[in-house]
Amino acid sequence: MSASSQTASTTVPARTNGSGAAAILSAGFGAFCIGIFAVAADKSPHIKGLLNIYKPTGPLSGVTTAAIVLWLVSWAVLLLLWRKRDVRLAPITTLAFVLLGLSFLLTFPPFADLF
Question: What dihedral do alpha carbons 66, 87, 82, 72 form, nearest 10°?
Answer without folding.
Answer: -10
